[in-house]
């Protein structure tokens, strides 16, 4: 037992060993009550240079309705993104309450937070190194799949296909709501190009949006419960409390200049002390500079201090 205890509390061993235990908490899905509540935003790129020097796709998705807007932009700067959000998206689609992004430099600036606050929008961030918590990540994978289909022969043609990709995403039934994004926002079913080739019995293509929102909300909740149950089945999850010490995953890159390879770096850094446990699979630790940092529990593991004896 004493040998096991020494090995378990070995500082270097804990930093260099892969964590084979379940490194995440139970799956939690936060679903907005209606459209225009939360917008998830992300960037794709840099891509092959398109017309007018376009290099990036700015993706905005309404988390409730799954409605997507795609913008081709030259540079991924705070100013350019703010112009698209405040100067085009909100004027065309109406006010929003929250905007969810990763922790990229474009979104962590004071200008980003302040200008959105003036517009009545709260900024929310995904936890560090846990992009799965941003719903737009899944949409970006689908955008990538569609663009591979359309422009595999000429990669720089991606800009001209954005409108087509956006159209199909917004007029295709989404599995999690049971409706198309445009149906939820407008109450109308748009006629797709294929519909013109087939004569079907006439039907009412308009439904009160309030009814659709209610039905979509029930479907979203049901889908989330089923999805979370499948993910969590048979798993035991770690629990953390204030005062515990934890190690945090390292994400260092190889460097040919310094003769370093990422495989030989220690896997964890720390230890850090947990100062708050807000829930939603996150903890807040105090970093080296005594600043609070939010971490998803997927990126941490409990630290066992060396035995002083």
TrEMBL record:
<dbReference type="GO" id="GO:0015074">
    <property type="term" value="P:DNA integration"/>
</dbReference>
<dbReference type="InterPro" id="IPR050951">
    <property type="entry name" value="Retrovirus_Pol_polyprotein"/>
</dbReference>
<dbReference type="InterPro" id="IPR012337">
    <property type="entry name" value="RNaseH-like_sf"/>
</dbReference>
<dbReference type="InterPro" id="IPR001584">
    <property type="entry name" value="Integrase_cat-core"/>
</dbReference>
<protein>
    <submittedName>
        <fullName>Retrovirus-related Pol polyprotein</fullName>
    </submittedName>
</protein>
<dbReference type="Pfam" id="PF00665">
    <property type="entry name" value="rve"/>
</dbReference>
<dbReference type="GO" id="GO:0003676">
    <property type="term" value="F:nucleic acid binding"/>
</dbReference>
<feature type="domain" description="Integrase catalytic">
    <location>
        <begin position="31"/>
        <end position="189"/>
    </location>
</feature>
<dbReference type="InterPro" id="IPR036397">
    <property type="entry name" value="RNaseH_sf"/>
</dbReference>
